[in-house]
Amino acid sequence: MKAVMLTGLRRIEAGEVEKPTIGSDGEVLLKVERVGVCGSDVHYYETGRIGSQVVEFPFIMGHECSAIVAAVGSGVRRVSVGDEVVVEAAMWCGRCDQCRAGRENTCRNLRFLGNPGQSAGCLCEYIVMPEGSCFPTGGRISLAQGVICEPLAIGIYAVRQSAIDEESTIAILGAGPIGLSCMAAAKAVGVRAIYVTDKIDERLEAASGNGAVWTGNPHKTSIVKEIIEREPLGVDVVFECAGEQETLDEAIEILQPGGKLMLIGIPEFERVSFVIDKMRRKEITVVNVRRQKGCTQTAIDWIRDGRVEVDYMLTHRFGLEETGEAFEMVAGYRDAVIKAIIEL
What we know:
single chain, alpha/beta, globular, 2 domains, 7-stranded mixed beta sheet, Quinone Oxidoreductase, Chain A, domain 1, Rossmann fold
């Protein structure tokens, strides 16, 4: 089957690899239809690693995808051949202490699509996934919308963890697909005000048109000064979606005492720091958000029911043979890209 592989830093090549086969009763063979290019994929593309996860070349990337069921194991009941599905990239064991506690997102034996040492990705014609990772859509959302369900589910989970409500004020630092997904989920839940920052004006325009009451570019204005002028007591929750030291520092400044910092962005570096005096005096709570924890079906339902709008995020489409071009665009933040999709 056809696949595109990372064969070196910033080097993507097409090739033929062996088509996977169903190996157990609970597995599903999927014909991949659409794949999203994620920021974490770009980390591998540019640096070959995220923290302790180091790529061994060649490697098939990709974890955001929608697909059509091509074959099922004898024990599969959730999906049938021909079904359109959203694929949840996580594959949990269901047996460890974390899974038994309802924390499959921190499964001790977790495998994840497109993660080195765990599983090859979905930038290929076919993949095999466990039944539990396949969510049928009934054709009620498009294949492209199915791709955005992965980041949207993370946004929904982050919002659930934040415990915001209609009286909350929030800031989202970083308006890529994850930040905009957090905004969509927060808007759906209901908040008093959403402030959004990013270094790309076109992304700020997208945020302004879809729920933000104020947006700011740190290259052009003082984020802390502008937000505090509008919220003198500080905001209740900050969703840090950029993975940058600069945005972590801004978060501590704009949070009110007792506020909550949601860490969602993945830094390229191994360590971050906080001004502990300010953080301690404000008694800031820090919450790490690890993937989507049971929110994939909610993401599908919210898109299907019109509770969230996601189509504006789907800005660019490429063929499989254009994957390298897509990665270069996303890595360079070119042409106002928000979400680039590979169409197989």
